[in-house]
Write a structure and sequence with these properties.
CATH architecture of the largest domain: Alpha-Beta Complex
Distance between the termini: 51 Å
Number of strands: 5
Structural class: mainly alpha
Strand content: 5-15%
Number of helices: 10
CATH topology of the largest domain: 2-enoyl-CoA Hydratase, Chain A, domain 1
Number of domains: 2
Largest sheet: 3 strands, parallel
Shape: elongated
Length: 169
Amino acid sequence: MNARIAQFPKPYVAIMDGLVMGGGVGLSAHGSIAFVTEKTKLAMPEVGLGFFPDVGGTWLLSRSPGEIGTYFGLTGQTMNGPDAIYARFARCGRTVRQTRRAARDARWPAGRRWRHRGEGRNRWFREPARPQDPSPRSRRKIDRWFTHDRMADIVVTLSGTARSWRNRR
């Protein structure tokens, strides 16, 4: 179903406001227009239980820039709006008021056809995502710590980092 959502020829608008978990990630992150808000908390709780993400989460994480996908896939941490945009789970970051306006404006006149994927009713939908608050995640450190191909190497790197923090005190 997620693959069909990603290939759907008509606009598929998803607004991820509040908690978005499990199947909600698959139903929204694969759409042509996916919004996050300042209230977005995107989670893959199955990772915390020791399972791999489903509903296309693994596919999305593997295509995230740097090692942020590895980080979220291994730790099960919750993404906020800016994290979801950076990890390419969403394309637009707006306030709730702006998102409601976008949903209202997404109503298309009868008989209107999409000429190509990504065409919008107005420029507002095509604006690049600009998170309003910087993500609290340190992307450079995550890229350095999670760059290894083997879990054992990641654990050694993280253990060394923890020791160096303890020695600073």
